[in-house]
Design brief:
The protein is α+β, with helices and mostly antiparallel strands and about 100 residues long. The protein has helices at about 10-15, 20-30, 90-100; strands at about 5, 45, 50-55, 60-65, 70-80.
């Protein structure tokens, strides 16, 4: 059964600020997470208390969470590889806030 992909508003803004060719590549990668949220090139980020994943899309990284119980992939951040890992705890807080709005903390 395919997953639903949700994108946080902050991640949507980050994506919109990127060049159009990068946006297309990243959007295709995000779309592919519906069928396989753990592709072979995905990595778990170990620097946070939350279980966050990342995949590459050229020079950019997509940071996301997988909610297996709800079949949801939540995109938390989209940024250049040199900037994406700054403030990982802020990303983890975004996830906690999103879960609270979904009725589970």
């Amino acid at each position: 059964m395919p997953y639903t992909v949700e994108v946080l508003p902050t991640a949507r803004e980050e994506l919109a600020a990127l060049p159009k060719n990068a946006q297309r590549k990243i959007a295709a990668k995000i779309d592919s997470l519906k069928e396989d949220p753990r592709p072979p090139d995905a990595k778990i980020l170990k620097a946070t208390a939350e279980r966050l994943w990342r995949v590459r899309a050229g020079d950019y990284r997509i940071v996301y969470s997988i909610e297996d119980n709800r079949l949801v992939v939540l995109v938390i951040r989209v940024a250049n590889r040199r900037d994406v890992y700054e403030g990982l705890e802020v990303l983890a807080r975004r996830l906690v806030v999103w879960r609270g709005k979904q009725g589970r903390a």
